[in-house]
Write a structure and sequence with these properties.
The complex is a heterodimer of chains A (296) and B (389). Chain A has 296 residues and is mostly helical. Chain A has helices at residues 3-38, 45-61, 66-93, 97-119, 144-166, 168-178, 180-185, 190-216, 222-237, 242-262, 268-282, and strands at 135-137, 140-142. Chain A has a single domain (3-282), classed as ABC transporter involved in vitamin B12 uptake, BtuC, CATH 1.10.3470. In chain B, strand 1, helix 2 and strand 2 (76-82) form a beta-alpha-beta unit. The chains are: A mainly alpha (296), B alpha/beta (389). The interface between A and B is large, with 39 and 35 residues.
């Protein structure tokens, strides 16, 4: 094969990897935020990804213009996420991380079945954010929607960083995740922060589900698979660190895409898991995690 | 305390006595004993879309048969169990239907994996099973008790391969999923390519749930294939045709029954235009020619389904309709009191029963009963499938 086409192929695989990786990153951010606030893994995170896409599709079928439908679906899912914390996680788990994990596992089943009854069993399509043919980059194709995936992920990360660094709310969130008791002593409502973290995580998951729906369609059952990927990305990067979660997502996406491209597509999920295990053995704090003292 | 338990036992005894008496009285009033038929469907989980349609078709037909006198006066009692698209649950559901409900025949499951998982219980009880799953193994791994109604890959694959060859393509790339439908189809395709005069220049697979097929399509593009054969029933089909166009892979795409779904055309949008797939003639009933028995049967079912549920039946509803039609036909011949063994023999003797899938004629070696005569070729034009002329 010619050198030019080989470069174009490699570039194509990298573009595909960064596209999937950006979506993993959004879901992983949700895991990280809830972990920061509660010390627990929210196994319903994948369902928020599903709910984002499905409510977005529903809103567009009701005639809501696409940009409004996207914003509406993110907000609706955020409300569902916060409500889930208020009515299920808080009363049942009362702050115990192990119990929170169990409640979220149960909650994910409930959300999935509710979605099945609400939206029906078939897959649904969302139209691309901007129509038109794909763009060319050194012989490789970049779909317009892929640019949206990157842009929205980048925007979410920047907004999140500003909120965490600059706002009172963000500082309160960080204080809670660093030391819950101390945060409470200085007058931060720690349980409100937990509710907010679920809402925020749900919004990020929903964003991922919405931006990828025009590419892959969405259905009531897509949440659990994406939950696993997002979880793997969060662990790979290092739980509790938003920057690391994004890095973990992108690395996972690239690994999968290169495995599919140069080894065998059927092994890509396995290779990602093997690398994940390797990382856990050698660097339990994650590839990009710090020493494990500061969570955010 | 002792007196209390004595009176409790007394009350229980009386209750049992009345209960029993009540039971016999009811049975005497009801007339003929109902014919119990069990159905194992995927009402939840990944195949919920199939199971829901199948449930509707079965309930519609049972109501119709019972309203017109049932089986020689005996009503059909349909008991539906959900397997959650899970093999273990399918086994539990089959065992429950056989042992607790005492059904004489089983319809289902919706999926190939669930159908195969039930086989142990089916054999132990000697109850006939009519599967709604399209996997070749269902009747390929032959069992005297097991029948199936969808067009199996065994007939659809050679039909589509012939169409590819007729269109002048001899170098073909295969893209299939590693799940049940794709894996099953791939095996049959491998067996049949040589005799169809086709050379496979690429053989790519993907996992159900994959959201990106760039790697596979890039390799197909480099393989010099003249056409792509896509074998999957999942939503990845839409991803495949869309990314192919984005990557500049402009070769024609062919597929099977997996693409006979509105969701595929909706999801793929313009990229679906020109896609050619082979599946049953009944997808467009006019294929049969107006006035023919097949046309009347399919349109009658479609009309009644639409009246009851407000939407057109899909092919899965059609396969369920066929299972019940075949079963009712066999029951009509042997009567409502037939044993499972007699019923099995009667089903095997099914000869020329017209259903949705085509004309069913079973034999001692063929428990699918359909032929390529029941198939047609379709292409996607302006967002709709139309028969290829």
């Amino acid at each position: 094969m010619q050198c030019g086409t080989m470069v174009a192929e490699l570039l194509q695989f990298i573009i595909a990897g960064l596209k999937s990786g950006a979506v993993y990153a959004l879901v992983a951010l949700g895991f990280t935020i809830v972990f920061g606030a509660t010390g627990a893994i929210n196994f319903a995170q994948g369902e928020f990804y599903m709910l984002g896409g499905m409510t977005g599709v529903l809103l567009t079928t009701w005639g809501v213009p696409l940009p409004l439908a996207v914003v509406g679906a993110v907000m609706l899912t955020a409300v569902i996420g916060a409500a889930f914390e208020l009515v299920a996680v808080r009363p049942i788990a009362s702050g115990d991380p192990l119990r929170i994990i169990m409640v979220t596992i149960g909650g994910s089943v409930v959300l999935r079945q509710a979605a099945l009854h609400l939206f029906g069993p078939d897959e649904r399509a969302l139209r691309p954010f901007t129509a038109g043919p794909s763009l060319r980059l050194l012989g490789a194709a970049v779909e317009r929607q892929t640019l949206w995936v990157w842009a929205i992920t980048a925007m979410a990360v920047v907004v999140l960083a500003v909120v965490y660094r600059q706002t009172m709310f963000g500082k309160a969130m960080r204080a809670t995740s660093i030391r819950r008791d101390a945060a409470r002593l200085v007058g931060i409502d720690a349980s409100a922060m937990v509710t907010a973290s679920f809402g925020l995580a749900a919004a990020l998951g929903a964003l991922g589900g919405l931006v990828v729906a025009p590419l892959t369609q969405t259905a009531f059952y897509v949440g659990s698979g994406m939950g696993v990927k997002g979880f793997a990305a969060a662990i790979l990067g290092g739980l509790g660190n938003p920057v690391a979660a994004v890095g973990g997502g992108l690395i996972l996406g690239l690994l999968e895409s290169l495995t599919a491209g140069y080894l065998d597509p059927l092994y890509k999920d396995a290779v990602a898991l093997v690398v994940l295990l390797g990382v856990l053995f050698l660097r339990p704090q994650g590839l990009l995690g710090g020493r494990g003292t500061e969570k955010v | 305390m002792e007196r209390l338990s004595v009176s409790l036992v007394f009350v229980l005894l009386v209750a049992m006595l009345f209960g029993c008496a009540g039971g016999t009285k009811d049975a005497a009033d009801e007339g003929p004993k109902p014919v119990k038929i069990g159905a194992v469907l995927s009402l939840t989980g990944t195949y919920a879309g199939l199971g829901e349609a199948e449930k509707r078709a079965l309930e519609l037909e049972v109501d119709r048969i019972n309203a017109s006198g049932g089986i020689a006066g005996a009503p059909i009692e349909l008991i539906i169990e959900d397997d959650g698209t899970d093999e273990a649950k399918a086994v539990a559901a089959a065992a429950k239907l056989i042992e607790q409900d005492g059904v004489v025949a089983l319809i289902g499951a919706s999926g190939t994996g669930q159908t195969m998982a039930m086989r142990g219980d089916v054999k132990r009880a000697g109850v006939p099973q009519i599967s709604l799953a399209g996997g070749t193994v269902v009747t390929g791994e032959f069992d005297p008790l097991v029948f199936q109604t969808p067009w199996s890959n065994r007939i659809v694959v050679p039909f589509v391969l012939e169409a590819i060859n007729r269109a002048g393509h001899t170098k073909v790339a295969l893209l299939s999923d590693s799940g049940g439908y794709g894996k099953d189809g791939r095996a049959v395709i491998m067996e049949n390519v040589a005799s169809a005069g086709i050379e496979l220049v690429a053989d790519e697979t993907f996992n159900p749930g994959d959201t990106d097929l760039t790697a596979q399509l890039t390799r197909i593009k480099a393989s010099g294939a003249q056409a792509v054969l896509l074998w999957t029933a999942g939503k990845e089909a839409a991803v495949a045709v869309k990314s192919a166009r984005e990557l500049g892979l402009d070769q024609p795409f062919f597929g099977g029954s997996g693409q006979a779904r509105v969701e595929f055309i909706e999801g793929a949008g313009e990229a679906a235009e020109g896609f050619i797939f082979g599946t049953g003639k009944s997808l467009v009933p006019a294929n049969w020619g107006e006035g023919s028995v097949q046309f009347e049967t399919v349109s009658d079912f479609a009309t009644r389904f639409e009246t009851a549920y407000g939407e057109q039946p899909d092919i899965f509803a059609g396969h369920a309709f066929d299972a019940l039609t075949i079963l009712a036909d066999a029951l009509d011949r042997v009567g409502p009191d037939a044993s499972p063994q007699e019923l099995r023999d009667a089903i095997e003797a099914t000869n020329g029963v017209v259903g949705f899938g085509g004309t069913f004629t079973f034999s001692k070696t063929d428990h699918n009963g359909l032929t390529t005569d029941d198939l047609a070729l379709y292409t996607v034009e302006s967002g709709k499938w139309v028969p290829v002329k």
